[in-house]
Amino acid sequence: MQGELLERYAKLVAGVGANVQPGQQVLVIAGPHAAPLVRAVAAECYARGAVFVDPWYFDPHVKRVRAEEADPDTLEFVPSWYPKRLLELGAAHGSRISISPNVPPGLLDGVDPALAGRDQLPSLQEHFSVINAKTTNWSVVPWPTEEWAAVAHPELDPAAALTKLEAELVYVLRLDGDDAAAAWRERGAELKEVARRLTERRFDALHFEGPRTDLTVGLLATSRFTGGGSTTVDGIDHMSNLPTEEIFTSPDPARTEGVVSATKPLDVSGTVVEGLRVRFAGGRAVSIEADAGAEALRARCAKDDGASRLGEVALVDREGRIGKTGTVFFNTLLDENAASHLALGNAYATAVGEEERSRINTSSIHIDFMIGSDDVAVTGLTSDGGEVPVLRDGRWQI
Amino acid sequence: MQGELLERYAKLVAGVGANVQPGQQVLVIAGPHAAPLVRAVAAECYARGAVFVDPWYFDPHVKRVRAEEADPDTLEFVPSWYPKRLLELGAAHGSRISISPNVPPGLLDGVDPALAGRDQLPSLQEHFSVINAKTTNWSVVPWPTEEWAAVAHPELDPAAALTKLEAELVYVLRLDGDDAAAAWRERGAELKEVARRLTERRFDALHFEGPRTDLTVGLLATSRFTGGGSTTVDGIDHMSNLPTEEIFTSPDPARTEGVVSATKPLDVSGTVVEGLRVRFAGGRAVSIEADAGAEALRARCAKDDGASRLGEVALVDREGRIGKTGTVFFNTLLDENAASHLALGNAYATAVGEEERSRINTSSIHIDFMIGSDDVAVTGLTSDGGEVPVLRDGRWQI
Asked: Are A51 and B43 an interchain contact pair (Cβ–Cβ within 8 Å)?
């Protein structure tokens, strides 16, 4: 992506995405390969009046080198200024832009998953506290790379794979139309309206039923469905993901029961997990099996007490563009917006009422996995035993 | 540079250069283009027992975008965590590796020099305090890039220019021999011996005489010549520059008199200054003229009170390899080690006795410019009026 298309993308990221305000500091987390987008976004942020654009280039190859070479007992060490960078940005009410993937899918293949799981960078526990404080307007957006394209389109030669991935990103980001900003404002309004209707129903639980899936996810009394954008404590609207097609909430971490099968592979910080099957009892993932990569996920779910409980349940309809490409991107930003999904680990405090914030799940991890497809029926269970169809054949029923 | 040569270079950098110790944090400052060296150095640091390698990729293109787009009144803003990163590394007695150039020569050409001079990043005032505290073992080393090669060898096409620059770096880094580490230990010992003899003489001043140069630089009573390597407060030997060919000290900031002409162009954070002529009176640069780029240097010399006074005087003989290439690299690391030079701005506290640390120059800048050649005679002036030849025709006389 370059030239006029790159400029339009940068405008979308700094505008409808992060909605950078005059006087703000902007932290941009990206791999060194994403430098062209970082530079274009920086120009756009400064043009919007940003006081400082701070590129945090995270090098996934150095992460791999660390897992291979460093003393295993040191892999959880994080320098003192890493959390400060986030917390001080939050205190300054700055903006955050994250360019995905930080760690290309498959980059950690061959590294002992138990070791790879100890180094969580560039993720930091403090990300969640800054998100939950709603002090920063932020957006996660994709950038195509050769390494990623090779995993998404292994049947093509490297140049063709990159060209195809880039074209898919232009499509799912709605950059092919005249006015991507207007298209996202419209889609955001739709998602907000469905979220409002879902919240109104005050379901006690959601039930997922489909091939090898029969799962009930309990909700909290104040679980609030959210989608189509967020607003900071200062009233700044932003879209935390671009593309975004999901409606999500924070469930009851103690009331998930049954079995669920992933409908797409997922990438766990560089290790691809395929054919994932998880059994829950009392809210906890008591069994994690997969055709490949199960150990990488198990290692992360052993990080802390909340790492094996759910922090998010999200619904996606068939109207989004990601699912229509038919591609598995091995990238959570895209794949989670192609299908209904769950996340193990930390929950979003903003998705429940103030009085229940202490009940949501807390963890140092947050790993999404896709469980939805047109074959998976989603039903709302009411506290008086009623059943209300929510998604059938990928279409909203409410 | 790649493969076995890159590995040998990385070993030299982490070994004889920064001398990374088990348990240390290592901050690596580099442009995104230097990722191959950063990754190889990171592997070497971890193999030596480093606890964490922290790549700080500084993007010079974002610096240019800022100078072009940002509100001029915001250009001196630096986020609170930038100095913390350095100060906390110093407090932890970590290691620092800096890959030069951060900002390729000429990258800021066309930007208003008055604006470009306000943003000093990636330089920070705190660099000097960490250096002067001698808590970190550190090294600055070069990495070839296309942009740099185009400036150093404009007569060649881009690929040939890069090939030539890379070959020159291999030569000046002594990587062409069997054992670069041994070669540097030997050269370091020579430089230390000359520095010891120069210090013993207790000169009151140094006099430079050559074409359009007639300059006297007063020394402090405890000015100590240093070269060939440094030692931290913990006793860790390291070479702060690779290549290093200089013997330097901190002069009396109040006693520089006369005129001096630069013998090579210099790059001031992206602006090339050619044909520089500076007049000093009472220690202060009272006139800065040049055939090109004078304004960039003048803007920096107006940063603070010490920015127009000398912080360093350095002598270089003809035995080093950099001068032998005949190339002007437009890169201070290399060019300053090709010729005797002065630096405007902050001085090294470690080059004077404890009792005179309050007398050396302090500033937020430190800009080297080359004033030596085989045609420039350097003479030591003793406090009783004696004159002792120091360098004649590029050879040591003492």
From this structure: no
Contact B74 A51 (CB under 8 A): yes
Residues of A with Cβ-Cβ distance to B57 under 8 angstroms: 32, 55, 57, 59
Of A39, A65, A84, the CB nearest to B39: A65
Question: What is this structure's pTM?
Answer: 0.88
Domains plus CATH for chain A?
3-169 (3.40.1830.10), 180-228+239-396 (no CATH)
Mark yes or no for CB contact A89/B71 under 8 Å: no
- ipTM of the prediction: 0.86
Q: Which helix (H) or strand (E) holds B388?
A: strand B387-392
Q: How many residues can be counted in chain B?
A: 398
Beta strands in A187-270 (DSSP E): 205-210, 213-219, 226-227, 230-231, 237-238, 246-249, 251-261, 266-268
- Cα end-to-end distance, chain A, whole Å: 39
The CA-based dihedral angle spanning residues A315, A321, A322, A324, taken in that order and rounded to the nearest 10 degrees: 100
Task: Give the 3-state secondary structure of residue A29.
Answer: strand
Q: What is the pLDDT along chain A (398 residues), one digit of tens a residue?
A: 899 999 999 999 999 999 999 999 999 999 999 999 999 999 999 999 999 999 999 999 999 999 999 999 999 999 999 999 999 999 999 999 999 998 888 888 888 877 887 898 998 989 889 998 999 999 999 999 999 999 999 999 999 999 999 999 999 999 999 899 999 999 999 999 999 999 999 999 999 999 999 999 999 999 999 999 999 999 999 999 999 999 999 999 999 999 999 999 988 877 889 999 999 999 999 999 999 999 999 999 999 999 999 999 999 998 889 989 989 998 889 998 998 999 999 999 889 999 999 999 999 899 999 999 899 999 999 999 999 999 999 999 98
